[in-house]
Amino acid sequence: MSTRHRAREYVLKALYALEQGGQTREEIRASIIDKSGLDENGIEFSQRLYDLVCDNLKKTDNQIIRLATNWTLDRIAIVDKNILRMAICEAEYMPDIPLKVAINEAIELAKKYSTLDSASFVNGILDRVLHEKQT
């Protein structure tokens, strides 16, 4: 398993904790990401992705709402929503990561951490992101 894949798993855990409340963004970063045991590059990547998602939450959520036709944000499973947020932020703000890599990583996270239908749901939304970026 690659360092970046493991880093994405920690970011997903941190975003889930943030959604649940009870701790600040910084406390979550310190308790989950900074103590992840990842190497320096992995921690740096996960911190960057976590900050991008947190800083662009409203914009990313609006994009999810627009792309997920017939779905409201509160109907999307928390894990799926956070996976989408991560992949969209990678697509929008991390040009060093190929979009297809971000999509494949998101699908793998959905398969591992969410429901049976989540991988195809995440793939469908992110396919729309890919299509929009190509046009």
Descriptive overview:
The chain has 135 residues and is mainly α. It has a single domain (3-134), classed as NusB-like (N-utilizing Substance Protein B Homolog, Chain A). The protein is 76% helix and 0% strand. It is built from seven helices and no strands. The protein has helices at residues 3-20, 25-33, 40-55, 57-67, 78-93, 99-113, 118-134. The longest helix has 18 residues, at 3-20. The chain starts with a helix and ends with a helix.
Fold blueprint:
Layout: H1 3-20, H2 25-33, H3 40-55, H4 57-67, H5 78-93, H6 99-113, H7 118-134
Helix pairs in contact: 1-2, 1-3, 1-5, 3-5, 4-5, 5-6, 5-7, 6-7
In short:
With 135 residues, this protein is mainly α. Helix content is 76%, strand content 0%.
